[in-house]
Design goal:
mainly beta; Thrombin, subunit H; 0% helix
Length: 120
């Protein structure tokens, strides 16, 4: 059993690792955490919970709300914390039966937001 599978501090039924088969494509390590977030896709604003986050993105559980379309750029903000968090530009890069994966877009380039590259 790997080190992350032996972590006794996670809630039952959670895993700090990526979904099976995805480990080889990940650029950044995942942290399993349930955060309340607000997602604005330009047409609707919905509230979701995260399954995991990393430096490059996050996976969002859908539970009752449809995901934004694949490829859509969205504004994401963590809610339910003491201070107002910034809105981060992200792109929907994956959709499955549990939810959707978001990748952080590079807004530091001249001319504003550039397409997301690679995997999160």
């Amino acid at each position: 059993m790997s080190g992350w599978q032996q972590n006794r501090f996670l809630p039952a039924g959670t895993s700090p690792g990526p979904p099976a088969g995805d480990a080889d494509r990940r650029r950044h390590p995942r942290t399993v955490i349930a955060l309340e977030i607000r997602v604005d896709d330009g047409q609707d604003v919905r509230r979701y919970r995260t399954r995991d986050i990393s430096h490059g993105g996050m996976f969002i559980l859908v539970r009752g709300h449809p995901p934004p379309p694949l490829g859509r750029e969205v504004g994401v903000q963590i809610t339910g914390i003491a201070e107002m968090s910034p809105v981060v530009r992200m792109r929907v890069v994956r959709i499955d039966s549990e939810g959707f994966g978001l990748q952080v877009c590079d807004e530091s380039a001249a001319g504003g937001t550039t397409p997301c590259a690679g995997t999160y």
